[in-house]
Amino acid sequence: MVNPWLALAADADPVESRRAVRRAHEEFLTGGAVGPQVRRVVADSWRRCARSRSATEAVAPIDLSDGELAEYRRAHPLAGAMPLVRELLGSVADEGAYLLAVCDEYGRMLWVEGHAGARSRAETMNLVAGGRWDERHAGTNGPGTALATDHAVQIFTTEHYNRVVQPWTCAAAPVHDPCSGRLLGAVDISGGDHLAGPYSLALVQATARAAEARLSAVPRAERDFLTALGRDEALLSVGGRRLRLGRRHSEIMVLLACHPEGLTGDQLALELYGERPVDPVTLRAELSRLRRLVGPLLVSRPYRLRAPLRTDVATATEELAAGALHAVSRTYRGPLLPSSEAPGVRRARYVLEDGVRRALLAARDPYLLRWWAQSSWGEDDLEVSEALLGVLAARAPGREAVASRTGRLREAYGVARGGG
Asked: Does the keyword field hold DNA-binding (predicted)?
């Protein structure tokens, strides 16, 4: 069975494959149809790129400047795995005349290293530290597509959506937080046609797994974690297990994590249901089902967690209090349990969201404002869009798009057009 994540079959002719996919790429751009010679993973990526209006003839944007980049990657979790990644891939990249690149979960390149000649060529398309290489900004490419699919993948020359990148072949694999399962970024190698062989995909996959193993080398108690930001069903990592909780169980775990002193049945019912009358048996049944999932972690009288449980909510709150806004931009992946109507969850959601939003408006950092304005939860935030427009220099890359979006939001909200 052919591995769909490999760019070329063992008996494929690279030259003919390049030509056939180039023709298919041109046909897709002109007519929207994808021919059978294009792998499904690539065809799906081209469609995502078309929907997001990714450029077909442009260099990737630079998202982090030197000062911002140094601060951001110093605090990034993948920094702890970089010595191992360099050990496994660094010398291979240098000797093989290709690049080693590591990006964050948003496709921002944190490290780009390797052969000097390859680095020089890569600079012409902004494949550099600080460049933005998710699919929306750089089209189909190894790290961007690995992030979009959450799977290791090869992208061969003309499979790249952006023609500027088509001289390259790359293989990339996602890296996850071993505690929470959260996507942290991707490791990639980029170079010539010789990378289309199966060994390069196996190499980046092995490196990504080794990086995760290195990150997991912390005491067990520190690895117990609840992830609830930006998702309706929380992910609980405890005792070496990873559990995806249902919506009501997610709400209960969030509330108990926020109240380590515990909650009585009446207090928990109020936090979950508000003033709505609910039979106490209903809550006891939910707690009984939850206890079967999490075992001795949940205790009663009052209802509480037997041991403190780290959460992404607490992490973001601590980062916010410390003024570490770039760290917040990694941790805060969206509103807390966004679909929850539980009063206690809604209150915690608002407190954190409002705190983050106010802090980035006060900081007036272009990167942070852009992060919020381009997010699914902040794309309709007129105040943030106006603030971003106000801090961008007159000829800053992307300013025209920000001005256009701000104008549309002003019109939608019935606000008179201002300056900028």
From this structure: yes
